[in-house]
Specification:
Elements (H helix, E strand, L loop, with lengths): L1 H27 L3 H29 L12 H21 L1
Helix pairs in contact: 1-3
């Protein structure tokens, strides 16, 4: 179970950073219409995710979940370092 928690923590940090970087990159190369396409796709995808989660939660009702998730600060710092290394590596390639 701990392995999945680290994966999800890594993805939770990676995706917002990637989306923000993509948005800034598109703004910097002056392709205005692409910004609107990205925003519409993100809005549509986010809406679908929330709808699916809402339906899953509604179908479960008042089911009691076993919540044993422990946040380890060193995992957060390790993931931030991994993402920073990927950003630096990609910026050196470009």
């Amino acid at each position: 179970m701990k392995k999945n928690n680290e994966k999800y923590l890594f993805l939770a940090l990676l995706f917002p950073i990637f989306i923000h970087g993509l948005y800034n990159f598109v703004l910097s190369i002056n392709i205005g219409i692409l910004i609107y396409v990205i925003l519409i796709v993100l809005f549509y995808r986010t809406s679908n995710i929330f709808d699916q989660l809402r339906l899953e939660q509604h179908s479960k009702g008042s089911e009691i979940w076993d919540r044993n998730y422990v946040i380890v600060p060193s995992d957060i710092y390790t993931n931030i370092l991994k993402i920073s290394a990927v950003i630096v590596f990609v910026s050196l390639i470009i």
